[in-house]
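Two entries, shown back to back:
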Amino acid sequence: MTFRIRAIAAAWMLALCPLAAHAEPAQEFMLENGMKIIVKEDHRAPTAAHMVWYRIGSMDELNGTTGVAHALEHMMFKGTTSLKPGEFSARVAALGGRENAFTSKDYTAYYQQIEKSRLEAVMALEADRMANLVFDKDEFAREIKVVMEERRLRTEDQASARVYEALNAAAFVAHPYHHPIVGWMDDLQHMTVEDAKAWHDRFYAPNNATMVVTGDVDAAQVRALAEKYFGKIPVKSIPVTRPQNEPLQQGVRRITVKAPAENPYVALAFKAPTLRDVEKDDDVHALDVLSAVLDGFDNARLPARLVRTERVANSVGASYSSNARGPVLFVLDGTPAAGTTTEQLEKLLRDEVRRVAQEGVTEEELKRVKNQLIASQIYKRDSVFGQAMEIGVMEMTGISHKQIDRIIEKLGQVTAKQVQDVAARYFNEDQLTVATLVPLPLTDRKPAAPPAGLRH
């Protein structure tokens, strides 16, 4: 049985990834307690990726407890009623596997990569900490210090991270994307073990989770194992979080960040549409293509003109990801070369988008860009773990994994006129937030060592 895909997607699958063309489609099951199970068989190597995704992230936090989703992620490795702190990781290592976790604005996920015969063992471990996590006050006190040091290391000591934290806080005034995933330092300093426990008690339930298993597995056996280890975990009444919709922006917002850095930097963030309906949201697919036109391959417009030809920037970029539970941004950014100011580079970046809006793109350029973009989507499937990630992100952001191939088709159908239209529609000042880094002198202080217990 092959993927039910049509036209361009099928052609690309065969041309670029022949092995994937013979893979089985993902199968989906639902346990009686509401836990979704998605299994994607791929028998090219005797390995498997096992992931449990919770549809809860930093966007669901309340003021005063920002960072609690990430803090709980750390506590998930600190023991259950049957495991000592650190024993979860030790057991996975003893099985020859790798494991970790990550928290985003939209979700929290836990994973193990293992030899296929070890799947049952890691599934039992994951079910245990969903149902039987222990919250020790002393363990939490130690771990929240690790989280605070992680914030210092990855945000406060990194100029670019400080810029993007400030950028999000300015771009989103009402929506909880305003807050950093790691949390504000003051909230971390006042966080308690009860906060973490309440988060787990409220949201960590089978009916708020999706298991994704990919690799050399049998879907029926995975379903049976899921029933065995997760099926007995009781349903919880999951609170419905309020939308906190972002009000309409009226006028450009500007912020300045001063931090030790070698070079100035500027980032322009434009409000852009989120993918909600694969069939109807044509602007989303056109913006994906526009992002690739600007910065999707070696000879894309931004680096070709501003870095290599005019040499007014040391680096430039464009980024856009439409998969999210909340609002998204289309970002243009760059580091100016000597003799160029951030104000000048800001104008030059916007000029490139205006050029597309006014002149469009040629059919040859469009074809080349779409080839690159679609190929990058398909190459991700070379990895068993990459397949699990793709499925999980789609599901957590409200798009069925069954639509993955249709998105590739839609990208292939984007026209030059659609690219020109979105370049004209979404890049005005009423949707723009600009963050500028003003570099301060670098100190002679050596970077701090990563905190003990830092997981990802």
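entry 2 starts here
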Amino acid sequence: QAIYGSVRPLTVYITAPRQSGSPFEIFVCNLPWQVDDSWLEKLFSAHGEVVDARVVYYERRGGTRRSRGFGFVTMATEEQSYYAINSLNKQVLEGRTLRVKVSRESPQQGY
């Protein structure tokens, strides 16, 4: 059951490794607002070894943080990354349809 009335598509991207043997990064969007780093890690760990999972936040007045509705997950191998993408893309989480893809750009470049 959705906590919020609106539904946004979630997109996840995997980046190519920065160097040989590097982990692979996935971009996930349309995350429910209540999803945090540990929830994101648990979601993806069912599909392989999670090296890192982080939700992107912005600071609000008064020092509070709010999710921007997207995040990044780094899997241990390319195979696990693609397995996670194929398994989770377009799945509904808390009433929101996740979009999960290979991250093509670094998080600093406008996600």
